[in-house]
Amino acid sequence: MAVFVKTIPTLCGSVADRFSEQASTNEENRASVDYTEQVESMRAILNESDLY
Q1: Over the range 15-44, which residues count as b (16 or more CB within 10 Å of their CB) and which as e?
Q2: Taking the model in full, what pTM does it have?
Q3: Residue 35 vs residues 5, 28, 41: alpha-carbon distances, Å
Q4: Which tens digit of pLDDT belongs to each residue from 21-32?
Q5: Cα dist. 22→18, 44, 47 in Å?
């Protein structure tokens, strides 16, 4: 018995161009999040709990 396979949507035209531009921009700025405060807080908690 045949099983129906859904087609995969494909971006075309200006939508594809915009997606590509956004992907390139995101790739260039992917390390823009700074977690140093969260890491310091986590280490302080672990030091107090004798797990680290």
Answers
A1: eeeeeeeeeeeeeeeeeeeeeeeeeeeeee
A2: 0.46
A3: 43, 18, 10
A4: 999 998 888 777
A5: 6, 38, 41
